Amino acid sequence: MSAAAAIACPLCAAQKAQGIFRLESVPVICNQLWPDRAAARAAPAGTVDLQLCTGCGFIWNSAFEPARMAYAPGYENALHFSPRFQAFAAELAAGLVARHGLAGKHVIEIGCGDGYMLDLLAQNGVASATGFDPSMAGASSPFTARDNVEIVGEYFRSGQLDRPFDAILCRHVLEHLDDPLALLSDIRRAIGSRDVPVYFEVPNAGWMLETVSMWDVIYEHVGYWSAPALTALFRRAGFDPVSVGTGYGGQFLMAEAVPARPQPDYLDPGAAQICASARAFGQAADAELQRWRSALQGCSGSIVIWGAGSKGITFANALGEAARGLAAFVDLNPRKHQRFAPGVALPVVAPEELASLRPAMVLIANALYEDEIIAQVQAAGLRPEFAVIAG
Ligand SMILES: [Zn+2]
Fold it and tell me: From ligand 1's centre to the CA of 59, what distance in Å?
């Protein structure tokens, strides 16, 4: 841990930053696979230097360079192929329309992706739903088939709105912004004196800290939002959070707020608890990383990681020199096969190739699938050691 440094907090501007966790050479986009080893090795990489503001409890990557994201090629991270997420989103859309009386009204979503949520809102009776997302410029989507659903392929700006709106949604956007207060202030300007509710959803940093989910720390995320930090952001920008709760197994932070007078100096009393959790997280994550490096350097045979998603790829890159024993990723998804993970430049292979790799150790990226993976490996006549990548 580094001592307090003169880095200004992007949320409250206090110079009370404390370093809590650092990862070198992480892929700028960890979910993107590459066609060959050389391209994978040359994939854009950056540093994560997580800082805790001991004033407001906000956590951010002070080594984040926004320009690197702007130049990075697009990536697919839509969650809505998962039945669990579909159920979550359907309940959210119905609940928002009911709680805020949005049937027959006009709703805006900032960072709407392919418009999956806009379509759900329309299904629940909103008169029209307009989304803003620069990644959708020139793209088509099955979710804009309705006449009353529209996607504008640009960044949201208050000046470009041509008619009144009755609610604003913004989901999984804030964690990508290096100046989140600027967006909130612009939304507040767009609302003016009207009584328009907003809904924000972000990954829950409180959950990440408590469960020491260190492999959820990725370059794409510059900000890590806990309830106290999100509350401070709202109040400073002129919103009164009427509810700040969690969902999706505690992994998402969900906040609804209404316009109020700005409190530009607001600090949330819950920040102290977040600071304690963040320091504990940093110590636990450092210890966990050292433990993995020692364990893998002591393994004489080859090692594979089952699961070529962001968790496994972040893990492999964080190992540094200790990644030398890694031979491959194994994944069930055929679209990932014969492609290479960024940074570590390891191939992704099908489970059938395990027999020829004869690994001494299989690292399991997602504990949910531990039993079926062990059964499948043993059914192939292999007897490696197994370990679940915790954190
Ligand atoms: Zn701060």
Answer: 8
